[in-house]
Amino acid sequence: MSVAGRLVLIAGATSASGLAAARELRDAGARVVAVGHDPDKLRRFAQALETDAGPLSVGSSGAVRTEVCDLTDEGDVAALADRVRDADGPVDGVLHLVGGWRGGGGLAGQSDEDYRFLERSLTALRHVSRAFDADLRASESARTAIVSSTAVERPLAGGANYAAIKAASEAWARALAQGFAKDARDAGRPLAAASVIFRTKSLDGLEEALAQRFADLWMTEAADLNDTIVELTDPSL
Question: How far is CA 28 from the centre of its chain?
Fold first, then answer.
């Protein structure tokens, strides 16, 4: 089993991590829908993929296309899901990269403004996972992943908002995993979908590692992956 031929949606694709993931998935033969809210950033993303990604791997049949969507808007996400199904078919994977950082100032510095900014990541995760849940449960091999933080294990006062959102996102991802398991159990079939949490202190310098680890999820049985936490560290260390 591999990611080749699978349809994978990258939510929040215009970051360095999104570009690395799109390149890795494409070169492994996957079809990719890269989603972002800013058309200009998506155009630059597409240009970078064409000019900087290098040639496709031998035998690859992968492709990448982009979609503009406000992932914090439930109706916009529902329309996105319809467009993707009409154009590409049901999805087999979702990589959630909507995120960001705000913090500092101790507990007193944890403003509501900063919390609402960070909350967008959780809101987008909820919308996307609900919109594509039926696709993922019906897939013969589905994988989803979020990127969380080691701050969940040791929250600091100056990053309380951030740690709280990451903890909530992990809870949602684990609930998604339980849903996959229950659906397979109720249908009397082997588990084919897995929800995975990647944890790291920082993604800086680990974009390629994340891309590789995500693509490799299809190489492992879903039952061995579902509801697991994977520590993402520098592979050179």
Answer: 17
